[in-house]
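User: Assemble these into one structure.

Assistant: Restating your components, then the assembled model:
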Amino acid sequence: VKTKWLPSACYSLLTLIVVLVFTFPFIWMLPISVPGIVTSGLLAFIFSWNNFMFSLILSGEKTKTLPIAVFNFISASSINWGGLMAVTCIIIMPVLIIALLTQKYVVSGLSAGAVKG
Amino acid sequence: MTQPHNIRSGELYTKKRTITERRLHGAATQIVFMTHIRMQVAAYPLIYRMHQEGALMMSYGWFDRNLKWIFTLPTALFVLLVVAFPIAYTVKISFYEWSMSTVTAPKWVGLENYTALLVDQRFWGAILRTLYHAVPSLVIETVLGVAIAVLFSRNFIGSKWVKAFLMLPMVATPVAIGLVWLLIYEPSIGLANQLLKGLGLKTHAWLGSVDEVIPSLIIIDVWQWTPMIALIVMAGLTTLPSEPYEAAAVDGATAFQKFYHITLPLLSPTILIAVILRIVDLLKTFDTIYSTTQGGPNFASETLNIMVYTQAFQYLKLGSASALLMLFFIIIMIIVLILVKVRKKMEAKQ
């Protein structure tokens, strides 16, 4: 690009800044932190899937999450064991499958921070 | 020389790289840094002039001096918004009487919520029940967890799968686990009583009886969370040095002596961390207790957390519940501070 507004050195400085600012994070930082990002994403998913207290307090009649909706099978007089266990399986299965498929990350995430070095 | 096509997608670090790929990557790195240096040389006159004028230096200096604040600012703001504000609001509400209605405003009552709690039998009962649930669970979990970790820490066929299966109870939904145990503990058709009957032993009421409900809950908690301590201790075991064991083998130490005199002292900081993490979670147990007994029968399993929930969202006494939460918070803080002190002393000794 030929312009006379700035000395050519400025353009190389600008290029340098642009290259470093926009490529450095993606080429060097992101690949190194992929395991960390995957682990924290997985743990975040698992813990929000399992979350009970927040949905118990905050959810309304039409916004129940699975762990709250399962209590529909329990009435004051009797418990529908078949339905209850079916829904229990539906709740547990996705987390278990995901955790088994990505066990390396989940195990390291669950025991991280407790061991020095 | 061209860059490998996948350098941008970041696959280089997640896949095992072949030697060619590694060389290509090294070349790419070199090219970029060479360009960097060439550009700096090209830009030198400009940078030199700015240095002379002091402009660049000043801005660099300010940035450098405040770097720690700039990098921590987003996190600090987030913590302030998500943690500090709710706690401050709870403290405020604990001095008021409020039933969560939009019509009547909170009424200032001073320390009345606290004094009412401190003379309440139900509150002291809840504290005792929380400790009765937490302390035995913690002891059993720690002993079992360390034993499992030491047992499975050696490499054998399928040791990876043992770890994977150990992890499963921890990631499974606590509510679902509570409901499964509800079926197991069911007096007439439940697995527990069927087993006892088959063995010719006396059957129990489990969750239905005032005396047995907390031991039953302890069993659930031990089943669910022993693996956590086992996993943490396993991770700790891999970091132990091998020299002490070699020395012990030369001196003719037995396996038990090795465990008691080498493994345990070296592992104690890791175990203590696991204990701290576990005790906090144990004191706050809510999901399994709520889904199995909801504090019953006759308040026999009403721990502090369940009591807070009942006070706040069933009796709608927000002020009293907030005061209860503050006392609960203080109890947890005291326990954790004591454990952290113990850990520091232990580290100073080593």
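Residues 6-13 of chain B have pLDDT under 50 and may be disordered.
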